[in-house]
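stage 2 :: seqdesign
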């Protein structure tokens, strides 16, 4: 009798209750996702035509460079996933056999169809965000809302008084900046590590919607943020790199307004709603979707810290935070609905498929 420990991978999907999804159904999900993305790109094209400004990708920061980075992360995660799915004793050859069995050409094509949909959305989002500077900011209204909610006080000043303005400032800056790393890893992981490709599409669709809905709120209430509207509230903080970034963002905005047709004119500043909160909450939703309890708890703590940091450092008004949470919640309603996924993966099936493999599509 063959020792099951000597096989490179576990038994086929049918033996653990997994049902392969027909290729036509899988590609129909992809088509539905891309239908939303194409509509969003159409909005971007219309805005571009109205302003007479083409789409831009400064230094490849939002498309070319991002796709290259995603490719590297994708390969690393595939290798890690293959190692985890390979039974003991593990070796490079056995791990490669596992990767080849799981990552068929059809699965690779579906995975990159989803990832490119994300990148097309993200690229369009950044261009629309840049062009939002041509709308009059309404920071005074958001400031008034914050003061009303906090009984005449600035929420940032209250946090400074509560936490102090020295060590807490540095800790919260590092916490806030960790967001960028989390995001660039999270969405490829949503595709590579998903037990079923349908769940990968549900996650990517949620990410697509969070950028679309965030863009809508930027245009609904254009704003720059408390660091610009109420700079005196942050005068007691030590000099931090984040303040240099804020100054750079304002300079970029001024340059775009003064020279909109300059090839390097591109802006990155908008406040309402907080997409740091929205995207982090969407990643938390991804862990919840896959029934990863411990990861969900860790991400909930990270989300709470991000909400504190974004107000403390002056990036966002307090009212931007619940708006960001609402965007994430809506993204997790619209995402699975867009790609026709009705339920989260079953808990038992999810544990088995983590080692056994899943539907090839």
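stage 2 :: out
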């Amino acid at each position: 009798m063959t020792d099951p420990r000597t096989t490179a991978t576990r038994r086929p999907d049918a033996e653990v209750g997994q049902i392969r999804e027909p290729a036509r159904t899988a590609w129909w999900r992809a088509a539905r996702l891309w239908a939303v993305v194409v509509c969003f790109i159409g909005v971007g094209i219309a805005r571009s035509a109205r302003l007479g400004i083409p789409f831009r990708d400064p230094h490849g920061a939002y498309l070319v460079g991002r796709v290259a980075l995603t490719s590297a992360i994708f390969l690393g995660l595939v290798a890690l996933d293959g190692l985890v799915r390979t039974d003991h004793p593990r070796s490079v050859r056995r791990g490669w056999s596992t990767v080849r069995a799981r990552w068929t050409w059809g699965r690779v094509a579906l995975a990159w169809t989803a990832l490119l949909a994300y990148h097309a959305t993200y690229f369009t989002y950044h261009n629309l965000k840049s062009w939002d500077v041509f709308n009059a900011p309404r920071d005074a209204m958001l400031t008034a809302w914050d003061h009303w909610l906090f009984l005449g006080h600035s929420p940032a000043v209250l946090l400074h008084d509560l936490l102090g303005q020295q060590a807490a400032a540095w800790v919260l800056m590092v916490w806030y900046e960790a967001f960028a790393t989390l995001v660039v890893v999270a969405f490829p992981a949503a595709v590579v590590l998903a037990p079923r490709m349908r769940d990968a599409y549900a996650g990517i669709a949620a990410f697509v919607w969070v950028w679309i809905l965030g863009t809508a709120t930027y245009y609904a209430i254009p704003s720059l943020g408390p660091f610009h509207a109420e700079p005196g509230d942050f005068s007691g903080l030590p000099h931090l790199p984040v303040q240099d970034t804020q100054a750079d963002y304002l300079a970029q905005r001024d340059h775009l307004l003064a020279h909109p047709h300059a090839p390097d004119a591109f802006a990155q500043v908008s406040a309402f709603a907080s997409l740091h909160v929205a995207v982090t909450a969407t990643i938390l939703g991804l862990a919840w979707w896959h029934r990863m309890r411990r990861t969900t708890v860790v991400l909930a703590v990270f989300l709470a810290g991000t909400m504190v940091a974004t107000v403390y450092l002056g990036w966002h008004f307090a009212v931007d935070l619940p708006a960001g949470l609402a965007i994430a919640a809506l993204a997790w309603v619209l995402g699975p609905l867009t790609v026709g996924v009705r339920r989260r993966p079953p808990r038992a099936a999810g544990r088995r498929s983590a080692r056994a493999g899943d539907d090839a599509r």
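stage 3 :: structure notes
- Confidence is low (pLDDT under 50) at residues 1-19, 349-358.
- The two ends are 32 Å apart (CA to CA).
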